[in-house]
Amino acid sequence: MGHEKAIVLKGFVGMEYTCKDYRSEMKLLGLTRRLEEENLTKEERAQITQEIKELEKAMKID
Questions:
Q1: Higher model confidence: residue 50 or residue 2?
Q2: Can you tell me the distance from the alpha carbon of 16 to that of 2, in angstroms, rounded to the nearest whole number?
Q3: N or C of the chain: less Cβ packing under 10 Å?
Q4: Which of the 8 DSSP states describes residue 59?
Q5: What does pTM read for this prediction?
Q6: Is the dihedral of CA 12, 13, 15, 21 positive or negative?
Q7: Which residues contact 21 (CB under 8 A, 6 or more apart)?
């Protein structure tokens, strides 16, 4: 908690972008890229898809 910094961009005044936001975005990116791999089993693909859905819901982008 005390390490959060507010980033103020033109048009986005007051929105905060935290380290947690960044980590979540990078995790989502990694999962999305992993889902593109051809050598995944159906179970792995289903697990990754579920993780993506849960992360998107937590990030409120679903």
A1: 50
A2: 13
A3: N
A4: T
A5: 0.70
A6: positive
A7: 59
Please give the pLDDT value at position 55. 95
Reported as a pLDDT band with limits 50, 70 and 90, residue 35 is very high
For helices 19-35 and 42-58, the axis angle rounded to 10 degrees is 150
| Rounded Cα–Cα distance for residues 25 and 14 (Å) | 20
Query: Which two tokens mark 28?
Result: 């989502």
Both tokens of residue 7? 């980033």
Per domain, the residue ranges of the chain are 20-58
Checking if the pLDDT of 1 tops 50, the result is no
Distance in angstroms (rounded) separating the CA atoms of residues 18 and 20: 5
Identify residue 7 by its one-letter amino acid code.
Answer: I
3 state DSSP class of 61? coil
